[in-house]
Fold:
Amino acid sequence: MEIDWEKMGGLVPTIAQNCMTGEVLMLAYMNRESLERTMETGLATYWSRERKELWTKGETSGNYQRVTDIMTDCDGDAILLKVQPSGPACHTGAESCFYRKVWSEEYG
Structure:
């Protein structure tokens, strides 16, 4: 399936998932150029909506994400990167950006 870049205004939400554990690590955005760079280098490269530029995860922190698989959802409007992380994904130092529980069935 092709990625529907136009449907999403040129940016597609992208989930990075640990290829060994299945843990969801982070959500970022990709454009065509960042996807191409990711495929060329094998390192997860995203589009920074804040800085308006490409960024390779780990450039400053050393916490690179080596990409093992790139997948798209059935509608072609989301990307899943399966990655081997070399350190925490979150800028807070947490392994995953998804560590804040909002709700749980046990609280129901």
The chain is about 10% helix and 35% strand.
